[in-house]
Amino acid sequence: MLKHAPWGGPETVENAVALDAFAGTGALGLEALSRGARLAIFIERAPAALSALRFNIRICGADRMSSVIAADMLTLERQPGVPAAGLVFLDPPYGQGLVTLALYRLHAAGLIAPHALIVAETGWSEPSPVTEWLAERTHGAARLTIWRDTAS
Question: Which of 37, 46, 89, 105 has a CA positioned 20 to 30 A from the CA of residue 27?
């Protein structure tokens, strides 16, 4: 979808630094790598999910193109040496209003590049995290919202 949308294009993913926040098993970041991203940064705090994430990175042969930050998104601190991402995936637990808080922490940590493309998945009944978006779709219990970051 990102590569073929009128507001996207191949350069949206190819050679990008992608950030997969609330990474879980890493599906979103690993998919970005499979589509040409040069680096995926994964943020996850749950021990079982971290174990699965590290296994998935290894089994996909993505060790050299991956960086795992074992931290809570809501208390995330600056990450020296970790580049800012131009493609950000947020898939927090539904119904807790975590997208806005996560974006605040990611900005404070210096992990979002100017004008990054943000892809957030929330529960379909949750309010949209932004008022101006590039695309918004619902699939079952999920709502996918995509926008360009304008925070400074």
Answer: 105
pTM comes to 0.95
Domains defined along the chain, listed by start: 10-148 (3.40.50.150)
In this predicted model, what pLDDT tens digit does every residue of 81-110 receive, in sequence order? 999 999 999 999 999 999 999 999 999 999
Helix (H) and strand (E) counts in the chain: 3, 7
Which strand ranges, in their side-by-side order, compose the sheet holding 39-44? Answer: 66-70, 39-44, 17-21, 85-90, 112-123, 142-148, 135-139
Contact (Cβ atoms closer than 8 angstroms) between residue 32 and residue 40: yes
Cα distance between residue 86 and residue 2, in whole Å? 13
What distance in Å separates the CA atoms of residue 118 and residue 53, rounded to the nearest whole number? Answer: 21
E strands, the chain, where? 17-21, 39-44, 66-70, 85-90, 112-123, 135-139, 142-148
Look at residue 128 in the predicted model and tell me its pLDDT. 87
